Amino acid sequence: METKHAKYERLLERCKTLAPTLTAVAHPCDETSLRGAVEAADLGLLTPILFGPRAKIQAVAKQSGIDISRYELVDTAHSQAAAEEAVRLVREGKAEMLMKGSLHTDELMGAVVARDTGLRTARRISHCFVMDVPILEQAIIITDAAVNIFPTLEDKVHIIQNAIDLAHALGNTQPRVAILSAMETVNPKMQSTIEAAALCKMADRGQITGGTLDGPLALDNAINLTAAKIKKIESPVAGRADILVVPDLEAGNMLAKSLSFLADADAAGVVLGARVPIILTSRADSVMTRLASCAVAALVAHARRNNTSEAVRHAA
After folding, report:
1. Global confidence as pTM
2. How many Cβ atoms are within 10 Å of 275's Cβ, its own excluded?
3. How many helices (H) and strands (E) does the chain have?
4. 130: number of Cβ within 10 Å
5. Which of 83, 122, 183, 287 could serve as 111's disulfide partner, Cβ 3.0–4.6 Å?
6. CA 298: distance to chain centroid?
7. H or E element at residue 294
8. Chain center to CA of 184
C-alpha cells in the first residue's frame, strides 16, 4: 500500500514543470476558499484573479493572515456578479481555469451554462472525481457524481469522453473504462445494463474514442481481479478499471462518499465539457485534496493548450 496521498503528490510533481495557469476565482469570501486559491498559487499551480466584494475579501484576508497583495482583485457587488464576471473573463480568453469560491455551486454553474454568456461547448458538461484510494495502485476516476442527475444514453457518451480526455491529460493514454451496474450481464429489466452494452458498441464504432470500454460490470469485478476471475469475466477492463462510469448521480455520490468515509480515500473534483476546466472544492476538503483539484485542472488546461497549438500547426 502506498503512502496516503502518494498519487496526488505525483500529480503535484508533474505540475512543477508547468507555468502557473491564469485562474478566475469566483467569490472567495471565506478563509477556506481564499486560502485554497493562494496555497495553489504558492505551489505554482495557478495565478488567481479574485472576483468578489473587495472589502469583504480584504477583510477575510486580513483576519486570516493571507497575503493577497500580489493578486488582481476585481470588485463585484455580490456572489452572482462575481460568478458572471469570472465567467466573462474566461469567455474572453483571459483565463484558462475557473475556480469556485464560497458561493453555491448552482450559482457558479448557472453562469457557466448561460446560453449566450456562458462557457458551453458542444460537449455535455460533467463532473469527475479523481480518487486517491489507498488500497488501489492508481488513482481512479469516477463520473458523474455532481452535475448530471439522470444522464441519458447520449449524455453518457459525453460523460465518458470527458473522463477519457481527463485520463489522457493525467498521462494515461488508453484508460480502461468500466460502465457500472448491479450485475455484469445484460438484463432487459435493468436499463443501466442495456445502456452499458450500447455504449461499448458505440466505442467499437468510433463514437467514443481514446479508451477501452467494457460493461455492464459490477463494482467488485470492475476493480478487483480476483472477483472478475471468479465470475469468469474475460475482459481487458475487468479488475483493473481506471474510470468508473456510474448509472446516475445518486450512485456516483454514494460510491465516492463510501470510498472517502469507509476506505480513507480523497476526492479531487473537476468539471469538464466547458471551455475551461472548473475547479469545484468542498469546505470539507483537506488541503491536499484542494491542491490536487487545482493540479488536475491545471494538467487539463495544459493538455488543451497543447492540443490547440497542435491543431494550429496542422492547419498552417
Report:
1. 0.92
2. 18
3. 11, 11
4. 27
5. 83
6. 11
7. helix 287-315
8. 27
Q: Are 1 and 135 in contact (CB under 8 A)?
A: yes
Report phi then psi at 146, rounded to 5.
-145, -20
Distances from the Cα of 231 to the Cαs of 182, 189, 222, in angstroms? 14, 21, 11
Render pLDDT for 18-73 as a digit per residue (tens, 0 to 9).
999 999 999 999 999 999 999 999 999 999 999 999 999 999 999 999 999 999 99
Which grid cell is 213? 470500454
**27 secondary structure, DSSP code:** -
d(CA 57, CA 149): 33
User: Which residues of the chain carry a pLDDT beneath 50?
Assistant: 1, 311-316
Residue 105, class by beta-carbon neighbours within 10 Å (0-12 exposed, 13-18 middle, 19+ buried)? middle
Q: How far apart are CA 289 and CA 305, in angstroms?
A: 24
Indicate the domain borders of the chain.
122-273
**What is d(CA 78, CA 63) in angstroms, rounded to the nearest whole number?**
20
| Residue at grid coordinates 474514442 | 209
What integer pLDDT is reported at residue 312 of this predicted model?
A: 41
Q: What is the pLDDT of residue 310?
A: 53
Which fold does the domain 122-273 belong to in CATH?
Answer: Isopropylmalate Dehydrogenase (3.40.718)
